[in-house]
Amino acid sequence: MELSANGQITDSLPCLADQNGGGDDLGVLGEVHNIVLPPIPCSFPWRNHPDYKALTEMSDAWVLAHFTNMPGADGRPSSFAADHMIKSAFHMQATLPYADGISERMPPIIKMMDWYFMIDNILDDPSEMGADPERADKVVDSVLTVFRDTYIHPSPSPNPLVRILTDTAAEWWAEMCQGMPPKQKARLSKAFCDYLEANRTQVPYRNSRQLPDLETYFQVREDSIGWWPCAVLIEHSQGFELDDEALSHPLMIELQKNTVQHIFMTNDITSFKKEYMQGDFCNIVSLLYFRKLYDPKRDPNGPAPTLQGAVSEAIEMIREKDENCVRLMEQIRNCKELISKPGVEQYLEGLGLWISGTVYWHLVSGRYGICATTNLHEVPPDMLASQHLNIDVNKQAARTLPNRVMMAAT
Predict the structure, then answer these.
(1) Cis? peptide before 154, omega within 30° of 0
(2) 106-124 helix and 52-67 helix, angle to the nearest 10 degrees
(3) Residue 78: per-residue pLDDT
(4) How far, in Å, CA of 398 to CA of 280, rounded?
(5) What are 16-66's pLDDT values in tens digits?
(6) What integer pLDDT is reported at residue 79 of this predicted model?
């Protein structure tokens, strides 16, 4: 017996390794290869930044200058080569959500997004630091100095990986903060710190091969997805600042919450196969599936849960968030005291672009094996079509299944 994250006692649960059957076409592993991703609910139109081509060239040059021959966690080549970063077009996760951004403010935002995916890979991938709390702590503690204004140039870390991640963060952070209002910078700094601490929290789950309960997962994932700094940058990219009253309004808080949940669940369902094939289970699909599979109240004579069923359940959860965002935006636009405030209408447009831009990028990027276009730079994806997850990473890691799920009290 042990305590769950919310203090509830849970039983240790059996490992499912035997259910994989030892063959690639059997059990959970076989299901993974056959998953079909239904259309992701999204009610918001997408746009790309008018300077997209120039920003693409800038991004590619910066990645090649800083991340070529990137060292891995153990001194070996990193799983994140510069050419892979370029092919994955991480900068589009900035040019689409910030389609209305002031051109002069876009370069540091592009650099930040490229960097985001680098550190995300390092802290997510169990073969890097995603299952090693001690090494992950060193990365987090070093990068935190940038956002707490205690950074020393260059980073004194003896680890080349930590030095590169810290020094590149310091570069775009200094550029980004030029002329930023103090209160906005403080919000941005706190959001980055919360992101790093949330990723630190996720590492022990991977290390122990246990999944949190659903409520705890949502709480952690809302920060670990890294969207809250990006929310502040909706304002900065367009040169406005929401006042405290607008930011603290219940309708705005609820809208932000539904937006970030839509975004992280979109990421979860599209990245599920990639993460599963790396032995990573901190994902809404894994959590929905294994909590049903391990449920001691499940009828053994009833139909067994499936991964495809978990994907469908997650899609319906995203649909609910999408509908909530539409409803909340309408309520805000009908609230005269709120919509009349400077920047609120621009902010609502920015939230919609973040939702649609996230769906768009996940479908066209090669990172998750979907590639729903013949040319990600010229041909938009069919966002209403079902997709296959065509990725094959580490079959050996895929045989390592979570050994317990923390069940919330009922």
Answers:
(1) yes
(2) 50
(3) 62
(4) 8
(5) 333 333 333 346 767 887 889 999 999 999 999 999 999 999 999 999 999
(6) 56
**Quick check: 67 and 82 in contact, CB under 8 A?**
yes
Q: What is the pTM of this model?
A: 0.89
| Joined tokens for residue 285 | 């699909």
β-strand partners of 288: none
CA distance 276 to 282: 9
CATH code matching the domain that covers 2-71+81-405, chosen among 3.20.20.190, 3.30.390.30, 3.40.50.620, 1.10.600.10:
1.10.600.10
- Give me the residue spans of the domains in the chain: 2-71+81-405
Cα distances (Å, whole numbers) of residue 360 to 39, 48, 156, 271, 353: 11, 10, 39, 14, 10
Cβ within 8 Å of residue 220, ≥6 positions away: 198, 201, 202, 212
Residue 404 has a pLDDT of: 57
Tokens of 346: 């621009």
How far is residue 294's CA from residue 306's CA, in Å, rounded to a whole number?
12
CA–CA distance, 14 with 236 (Å, rounded to integer): 49
SS3 category, 254: helix
pLDDT at 405 (0 to 100) = 55
Q: State whether residue 30 is helix, strand or coil.
A: helix
3 state DSSP class of 112 = helix
Q: Are 107 and 183 in contact (CB under 8 A)?
A: no
CA proximity to 6, closest of 288, 200, 282, 213: 213
- Segments of the chain scoring below 50 in pLDDT: 1-26, 130, 393-398, 407, 409-410
CA 340 from centre of chain? 32
Beta-carbon contacts of 239 under 8 Å, excluding residues fewer than 6 positions away, are: 102, 105
Tokens of 27: 């059990």
Q: Which helix (H) or strand (E) holds 318?
A: helix 307-333
Give the number of other Cβ atoms within 10 Å of residue 166's Cβ: 26
- Say if CB 44 and CB 358 are below 8 A apart: no
The count of residues in the chain is 410
Burial of 255: CB neighbours in 10 Å, binned 0-12, 13-18, 19+: buried
Phi, psi of 97 (to 5 degrees): -65, -30
Angular region, 125: left φ>0, alpha ψ -120 to 50, beta rest: beta
Q: Which residues contact 370 (CB under 8 A, 6 or more apart)?
A: 37, 270, 362, 363, 364, 387, 388, 389, 390
